[in-house]
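Prompt: I keep going back and forth on a fold encoding question. Comparing notes only helps if you start from a blank page. Show me how you would write down a chain together with its backbone fold. Please set it down just below, with no commentary around it:
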Amino acid sequence: MAVPQPLGLLTKELPMPVIEDCEHLWNGTEPGWVVLRTVEDRVHLVANFEAGADVRDLKALRAILPSLAAAPAATVFALKGVREFDLGEHESMEAHRLKTLCATHGVSVTSRGWREVSHGLFNESTQVYWLIEDSATCEAVALKAIARGVPVREIQY
């Protein structure tokens, strides 16, 4: 069976569960439940200007970042002299695109990457994603479900 993507699914909001109240996930009374394990590689980027950003560097940043291109020149010019400019956190492919664009404009970038893993509960029979808003509760329920033998479907971004 194809693994559904969690976006665009029918989402069912239920009261916040207590793990003991989740027996239906693994006891067979509601067949079709799986744990969706989502893996996403993330990267935080910082533009570095060893001698402090000069006008050329600021022009490059404006060419790279639409938010700075749309900002008033005085706002951008106020960044003159900064040694670092936070480019934010991005999904790994977007971070790679941004790093390549920075290199094209002569901007040095440092990066720090990590992998985020999260779990969700999805019923493949009814096509319902169980939205548990508290992430700690969701993780606890998902890990209990895995321990009780609920199948795991992996989604990698």
Remarks:
- Residues 43 and 90 are 5 Å apart (CA to CA).
- The first strand starts at residue 10 and ends at 13.
- The first helix runs from residue 55 to 64.
